[in-house]
Design brief:
Mean pLDDT: 81
Shape: rod-shaped
Radius of gyration: 47 Å
Number of strands: 5
Structural class: mainly alpha
Oligomer: single chain
Helix content: over 70%
Strand content: 5-15%
Distance between the termini: 142 Å
Length: 222
Amino acid sequence: MASFLKKALGVFVEIEESNEVTQKEIPLDKPIIQQNSVVNTFKPESIASLNQADLEKFEVHFDKLFDQSNMQGPDYYEFCKMLETLEAHIPDEKTRFSAVFASLTIQGLTKQKLVDSANFYKEIVNNDKLKFEKAIDLKSATDLETKKSSAVALEKKMIENSELIKKLTQEISDAQAKITTLKGEIAEAEQKLESNKNGYNIACNAMLNKINIDITKIQTNL
């Protein structure tokens, strides 16, 4: 039943040549009328886009699910497979339904068994949906929640780092201003020290010179 899922989706979506599946606009407040004028009461709440890879993946999934659950003897599953096989040869759906049903009645299929088996597979799909939703919830509760927690932690760390950067930037700015002030004070202090040194040397030399002169005068005059 490789094309069974495509036919199921075909009521609500169309597969474009680009291998992408896009949603048809279907009023959800009106029943869907198919070619055989049978009312389909299924109303999709929302249909997400499917690409070709997703479509093939789910086709394989439902084929395996139906194969594993296949009932003994001809039933809805075999009925659908034969419908697909004869679609190219019998385009008219009503005629095709009658031909397939007539062929399978020889193997023991009745209308009641066909309906009952269809409901059986519907229950199989519903149970599979519950398992899938449970798996999604579990995935959300583990991987997604872990990733969400990591994202929150990183955002918190980013804010903390931003505050730290702001604080360090202010400290750097204050330090630069202090360094500028200290360099000015150092230059002023060095200038004063050099001035005192030069003044002392001048005074000291003058004093030594006076003493030397006085010694000469003492030796000469006394």
